[in-house]
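User: Okay, second chain of the day. Same drill as before: sequence in, structure tokens out.
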Amino acid sequence: MRELLLWLLRPVVKSWATAADLDLAGIARPIDSPRAVAAGVDSDRILVIGSGPAVGWGVMTHDLALAGALARSVSQRTGRGAEVDVVADASVMASSGIQLLEEDKLWRYDAVVVMVGINDALALTPVAEYKREMRKIFGQIERASSLSTHTLAVGIPNISEIPAFEGAMSRIANWHARFLNRATAQLTAGLTRTTFVPLEVIASRPTPAKGSGAYRSADDYRAMAESLVDHVVAPLNLHRLPSGESESPAPFTAIVSSRGDSEAQRQRAVDALGIAGSPPEERFDRIVDSARRAFDVRSALFSIIDRDRQWNKARANFDLEEIPREWSACSITIQSPGAHIILDTHKDERIAGYPLAEGQPQFRFYAGFPVESPTGERIGSLSLLDDEPRTEVNQALLREFALLVQEELRRGQPEAVA
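Assistant: Same drill. Structure tokens below.
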């Protein structure tokens, strides 16, 4: 009966929604680059995709819209930096939402916020069709992102709060939105890395009345970000060490001996890549040499932890092709998802007696960031070595170089040139 009623109402509601869209023509929206940043080290990366609040209606810059508000809220909660990218389309529906996803970039994000559905509520999209298309979106994200990436499926907001869509017809759309939200909740319940955030969680204070010349304000987006931030931060922190511990993992000798089932899975990922023991490749050498020059250090490496050895796949001013795992600082680096920094090896008890810190060649400074396989296991690191101790290191830049290596791993072996 409900589907029959929707079928009868669909042409009427569609005509009303089309006319109401004209009222949005004069509403401000961001005209700057779809990105917002909250400065800090070891930044979390978040992607916001969809329509509605993702678009940023009512403000002229993404810094004042949801992206900026969310970046600041996340950074304040975590103590780290936050970078929020936006891919928004005011007309997107569940059936076209997958087109917003850039598959080759999803692995770069720690969290993805999906805000799709408002147009489906207005169009009275059949629930089965909506659920089928949303399943495609979430499936694509889970396939193309890192195993540590978490997706937040945000419920359809209260359509009556949108000045252009006030009136009796909006109540019909809201009624249908409840069924669409229920379908999304059921769908995400069966996914391991996707969480549904219900409608009431993100509802902000009422927007200005129609005809007031205003729409959502920066305050509205701040309120919305505050409602979302706990749901974003919780999974982010699951893959991070507590604040202040990113540079102080467990003692070196304890780490190299604590290898269980997760180590077996990690080794399978190394074996599947077939990269350990392989000849040098220009694509990796180029990244490593660029990192060495960018940080002005003596040496830089892209290393793979392969069973009981560290295989140095790419080396810039470093002679050893491989070293025993018990000598390996990279073996510490892969124990956590963040940067591993040793500013002065002579003042760090964890590597007392470590051959490369006390013998020849000797280094006084080490910085490494883990490199993940295409399936998400931490298989090695991008590392920096220098003769002189340091007082600080740009962890955000270090991560960028590690991500470049990961991107090459995802591309697989380069095609042979005839």
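Residues 168-188 form the longest helix (21 residues).

User: Thanks, on to the next one.
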